[in-house]
Write the structure tokens for this entry.
Amino acid sequence: MAKPEKAPQAGTAVLGLSFLAMLTLWGGVAALADDPMRLPSPWRVAEVLWAEAASGKLWHHVAATLGRVALSFGIAMAAGSALGVLLGLVPRLDRWADPWVVLALNLPALVVVVLAYIWFGLNEMSAIAAVAFNKAAMVLVTLRDGARALDPQIAGMAKVYRLSPWVRLRHVLLPQLAPYLATAARNGLAIIWKLVLVVEFLGRPDGVGFQIHLHFQLFDVARVLAYSAAFVAVMLLVEYAVVQPVEVRARRWRLA
């Protein structure tokens, strides 16, 4: 019997050394460039980050961005998963819908964002819908592949034992789809937060993307890097504390 897979998390010491090397490289390049306006040192960015946090601005804008990420992610996962499983289980419908899926998958995100703002206005609904639409197509394709790979023998066993629809969903369908759901979620978070920054950059009055746009216009590189670093830190926390453990748990049943 195969041993359960261990969490693919690097040790704390290795992560610490990796980040230390990154900061050292950044500090060295900044010292050689000797141009704080274009490339401020890590210490200068840390000072700005602390000042923004102390004033409360940082928390307000990070919270606004996180809210948009959470809403877009939830909508994309729910809609993309439902449609993906449906298409994977109904080949005729899948063949009919395939051109639509290919179009949605390859439509540039920037085009979707701009059109959403033009058609529906510079509002929160347009921002969330544009991001969710772009991600839902990727979730759909991933879950469609998962539905196509379902084991027919397990489905036949569930039919023989006359399991209720709820029991089939919980104990037959979801365990087999769990790795695909985990993959879609992990890739989704990596893409959605970048798209949220784009919609904030183009048309929202708050959020990390808005702050980056504002300080870009002012040529304040230190604040651009400070807000970027703040949200990267949040995403790293989510990756190592939530996404990776969930992904390992989702794949564990296959190794039992």
About this structure: The longest helix spans residues 165-203. The radius of gyration is 22 Å.
